[in-house]
Design goal:
alpha/beta, Aspartate Aminotransferase, domain 1, 2 domains, 5-stranded mixed sheet, 14 helices, 12 strands, 38% helix
Length: 383
């Protein structure tokens, strides 16, 4: 039976157990694997000092050209990008206000967000002193609710693009932009985990976003502790003034010269990639896993892909009502505790199924799909 043997020596030295990362690009499990060219660019950048302000500006200009944006900056990860979005919209480029953050008393400090778009990382907005104003119900928002929520305290409207967040009853992005811009309010977007497809790098800016936030260490395969903030030139300037190396609210999430160069290189490589070939590769991996399980009674194993929730072809295991085995969470725990540790996703529990397991192929290495299929079958047939 295949086993996981390609363990880096540094991990062996530290006594760290190898894993198989079938959970997408989850930071807790190491994010993503960088390309060799990115690592070489980082090594080269480590060989000489540089003025970080100059490097930040040059890297931002390069990224803006690639994205067709007015301006861009490298951030210390997507969560840091959320802090900088809020800081830019609240404090702007005013040195006195920048110094005061997160104390926003007397400032326009409210960020409007649809209730269904509240997410675990929106705490990052509050780190900059923002107050979140919820509108709508759990699965529905109406235009008048946004109109009535905009006041002289409104700094921006937040829109989240993330898997399983695009509910049919919510205000469409174009409507959000139309209403907010009518009142002179910027729209800030978090799309941290929505790459690939590559078109998402450009689409939200085309549709009217004022600032868009992406992770650099997920689909782009850049350094894990990097991100991209792109959009309006004035807001990017404000974000940069609130960012490291300045003594401001963004200072704790500084990026090194190696990481900045690594992200620019990774983005160049990402944009030059063959997306169709990549998707075919991921579909083959997911199909292998599904084919190994589809004969089990009480199990429905399928490959799923769509533009909103499963951006890559993903192996999804549904537990039918007739399933009489162990629940999905017990299967996931057994995989994580085995050797090698295998991490998979908990499904979104869609379509009336009480439990799901999903295997995202993005970080799987050659042979990993065989190990995952074998271990899933072992655990699913264990009584």
């Amino acid at each position: 039976m295949p086993t996981k043997t390609n363990v880096p020596n540094i991990f062996k030295k530290l006594g760290v157990t190898p894993i198989i990362h079938g959970s997408g690009t989850t930071t807790r499990y190491g994010g993503t694997l960088m390309r060799a060219e990115t690592i070489e660019a980082m090594r080269e950048a480590s060989q000489a000092p540089v003025n970080i302000d100059e490097l930040n500006e040059a890297a931002g200009d390069a990224i803006a050209r690639m994205l067709g944006a007015e301006a861009a900056i490298v951030t210390g990860g997507a969560a840091a990008g959320l802090v900088l979005q809020a800081a830019a919209c609240i404090a702007g480029d005013d040195p006195a206000r920048i110094t005061r953050l997160p104390d926003t008393a007397g400032m326009r400090n409210e960020l409007i967000i649809q209730r269904a778009h509240r997410f675990m990382y929106d705490q990052a907005f509050r780190l900059a002193g923002a107050e979140l104003v919820e509108i709508g119900l759990g699965r529905r928002t109406l235009p008048y609710e946004l109109e009535s929520a905009i006041t002289e305290k409104t700094a921006a409207v937040v829109y989240l693009f993330a898997p399983f967040s695009s509910l049919p009853g919510l205000l469409p992005f174009e409507t959000i932009c139309e209403i907010a811009h009518k009142h002179g309010v910027p729209v800030i977007v978090d799309a941290a985990s929505m790459l690939p497809p590559r078109d998402n790098l450009f689409k939200h800016l085309r549709q009217g976003a004022d600032l868009v936030n992406f992770s650099g260490g997920k689909g782009i395969r850049g350094p894990q502790s990097t991100g991209i903030l792109a959009g309006r030139k004035d807001l990017i300037r404000a974000a940069a003034l609130n960012n490291s190396p300045n003594q401001a609210v963004g200072r704790p999430s500084k990026t090194s010269k190696e990481e900045i160069v690594g992200l620019v290189t990774a983005l160049e490589l990402f944009l030059a990639g063959d997306e169709e070939a990549e998707m075919n590769h991921y579909r083959e991996i997911s199909t292998y896993i599904v084919d190994a399980l589809c004969d089990l009674p009480g199990i429905r194993a399928v490959v799923e892909q769509d533009p909103f929730n499963r951006l890559l072809p993903t192996a999804v295991i549904y537990f039918e009502p007739s399933w009489d085995g162990r629940p999905g969470h017990a299967i996931r725990e057994a995989l994580a505790e085995g050797k090698p540790h295998i991490y998979v996703q908990q499904g979104a529990q869609q379509g009336g199924y009480f439990d799901e397991i999903a295997v995202d192929p993005f970080n799987l290495q050659p042979g990993d799909e065989e190990i995952i299929a074998r271990r899933l079958r072992e655990e699913l047939t264990r009584r």
